[in-house]
Amino acid sequence: RDFNSQMDTSNEPDTRRRSIRSLLSGAVQTVEFSGGCVFLDAPRRNRVYLPGSFNPMHEGHKQLLLVASQHDPNKRGAAFELSVENADKGLLDEGEIEHRIAQFIAADLPVVLTRAPL
Residue 51 forms beta bridges with which residues? Predict the structure, then answer.
Protein backbone atom coordinates (compact mmCIF):
# COMPACT_ATOMS: atom_id res chain seq x y z
CA ARG A 1 0.00 0.00 0.00
CA ASP A 2 1.45 3.36 -0.95
CA PHE A 3 -0.38 5.60 1.51
CA ASN A 4 1.69 7.58 3.98
CA SER A 5 -1.09 8.77 6.23
CA GLN A 6 -4.76 7.99 6.59
CA MET A 7 -7.76 9.21 8.55
CA ASP A 8 -11.19 7.76 8.04
CA THR A 9 -14.79 8.98 7.95
CA SER A 10 -14.68 11.70 5.33
CA ASN A 11 -18.39 12.18 5.94
CA GLU A 12 -17.63 13.88 9.25
CA PRO A 13 -17.45 17.66 8.77
CA ASP A 14 -14.66 18.06 11.37
CA THR A 15 -12.43 15.59 9.53
CA ARG A 16 -13.03 17.38 6.23
CA ARG A 17 -12.28 20.80 7.76
CA ARG A 18 -9.07 19.64 9.45
CA SER A 19 -7.88 18.05 6.22
CA ILE A 20 -8.66 21.14 4.16
CA ARG A 21 -6.92 23.39 6.70
CA SER A 22 -3.85 21.14 6.58
CA LEU A 23 -3.71 21.57 2.81
CA LEU A 24 -4.28 25.33 2.93
CA SER A 25 -1.58 25.79 5.58
CA GLY A 26 0.93 23.76 3.57
CA ALA A 27 1.19 21.01 6.20
CA VAL A 28 0.19 18.45 3.54
CA GLN A 29 0.43 18.47 -0.25
CA THR A 30 -2.62 16.35 -1.11
CA VAL A 31 -5.90 15.29 0.49
CA GLU A 32 -7.92 12.49 -1.06
CA PHE A 33 -11.56 11.80 -0.24
CA SER A 34 -12.36 8.31 -1.45
CA GLY A 35 -14.52 5.41 -0.31
CA GLY A 36 -15.52 7.10 2.94
CA CYS A 37 -11.89 7.74 3.93
CA VAL A 38 -9.49 10.66 3.89
CA PHE A 39 -5.90 10.06 2.75
CA LEU A 40 -3.28 12.72 3.45
CA ASP A 41 -0.14 13.07 1.32
CA ALA A 42 -0.85 9.80 -0.43
CA PRO A 43 -0.92 10.36 -4.18
CA ARG A 44 -1.05 7.04 -5.99
CA ARG A 45 1.58 6.49 -8.64
CA ASN A 46 0.35 5.67 -12.14
CA ARG A 47 -3.19 6.70 -11.32
CA VAL A 48 -5.22 8.74 -13.79
CA TYR A 49 -6.18 12.18 -12.44
CA LEU A 50 -8.78 14.38 -14.12
CA PRO A 51 -8.18 18.00 -13.08
CA GLY A 52 -10.78 20.71 -13.10
CA SER A 53 -12.66 23.31 -11.09
CA PHE A 54 -15.86 21.23 -10.88
CA ASN A 55 -18.06 24.23 -10.22
CA PRO A 56 -20.34 22.36 -10.49
CA MET A 57 -19.47 18.76 -11.25
CA HIS A 58 -21.77 17.44 -13.98
CA GLU A 59 -22.60 14.25 -15.85
CA GLY A 60 -19.87 14.92 -18.45
CA HIS A 61 -17.24 14.87 -15.69
CA LYS A 62 -18.57 11.55 -14.40
CA GLN A 63 -18.47 10.05 -17.90
CA LEU A 64 -14.85 11.20 -18.36
CA LEU A 65 -13.89 9.45 -15.12
CA LEU A 66 -15.66 6.27 -16.20
CA VAL A 67 -13.93 6.20 -19.59
CA ALA A 68 -10.54 6.99 -18.04
CA SER A 69 -10.99 4.15 -15.55
CA GLN A 70 -11.89 1.71 -18.30
CA HIS A 71 -8.80 2.60 -20.32
CA ASP A 72 -6.32 2.63 -17.44
CA PRO A 73 -3.59 0.12 -18.35
CA ASN A 74 -2.33 0.03 -14.75
CA LYS A 75 -5.77 -0.67 -13.28
CA ARG A 76 -5.01 1.86 -10.53
CA GLY A 77 -8.29 3.66 -11.02
CA ALA A 78 -9.01 7.26 -11.75
CA ALA A 79 -9.86 10.22 -9.55
CA PHE A 80 -10.82 13.83 -9.95
CA GLU A 81 -8.25 16.45 -9.00
CA LEU A 82 -9.45 19.75 -7.59
CA SER A 83 -6.74 22.37 -7.23
CA VAL A 84 -7.55 24.82 -4.46
CA GLU A 85 -5.16 27.35 -6.00
CA ASN A 86 -5.63 29.27 -9.21
CA ALA A 87 -2.75 31.21 -10.75
CA ASP A 88 -5.05 34.15 -11.53
CA LYS A 89 -7.51 34.02 -8.63
CA GLY A 90 -5.44 32.75 -5.68
CA LEU A 91 -6.66 30.20 -3.12
CA LEU A 92 -10.26 29.07 -2.81
CA ASP A 93 -11.62 29.71 0.66
CA GLU A 94 -12.39 26.86 3.01
CA GLY A 95 -16.18 27.14 2.58
CA GLU A 96 -15.94 26.99 -1.20
CA ILE A 97 -13.66 23.95 -1.04
CA GLU A 98 -16.10 22.18 1.30
CA HIS A 99 -18.95 23.02 -1.05
CA ARG A 100 -17.13 21.58 -4.06
CA ILE A 101 -15.93 18.36 -2.42
CA ALA A 102 -19.40 17.71 -0.99
CA GLN A 103 -20.51 16.90 -4.57
CA PHE A 104 -17.95 14.11 -4.81
CA ILE A 105 -18.62 12.71 -1.36
CA ALA A 106 -22.39 12.64 -2.01
CA ALA A 107 -21.81 10.81 -5.32
CA ASP A 108 -19.18 8.47 -3.76
CA LEU A 109 -16.58 9.58 -6.31
CA PRO A 110 -12.87 9.95 -5.50
CA VAL A 111 -11.42 13.44 -5.44
CA VAL A 112 -7.91 14.62 -4.62
CA LEU A 113 -7.31 18.18 -3.43
CA THR A 114 -3.99 19.77 -4.37
CA ARG A 115 -2.42 23.20 -4.47
CA ALA A 116 -1.09 22.69 -7.99
CA PRO A 117 -2.13 25.95 -9.70
CA LEU A 118 -4.33 25.56 -12.75
Answer: 81
Alpha carbon distance 102, 62 (integer Å): 15
- Which pLDDT score is estimated for 2? 43
Task: Give percent helix, percent strand, percent coil of the chain, each to the nearest 5.
Answer: 30, 25, 40
The pLDDT assigned to 52 comes to 92
Residue 3 has pLDDT above 50, yes or no: no
Instruction: Give the pTM.
Output: 0.86
Distance separating alpha carbons of residues 16 and 69, to the nearest angstrom: 26
More confident residue, 24 or 71: 24
CA distance 83 to 102: 15
Q: How many CB atoms lie within 10 A of CB 32?
A: 25
Residues near 16 by beta carbon (within 8 Å), at least 6 away in sequence? 10, 33, 38, 98, 101
Rounded distance, CA 9 to CA 27, Å?
Answer: 20
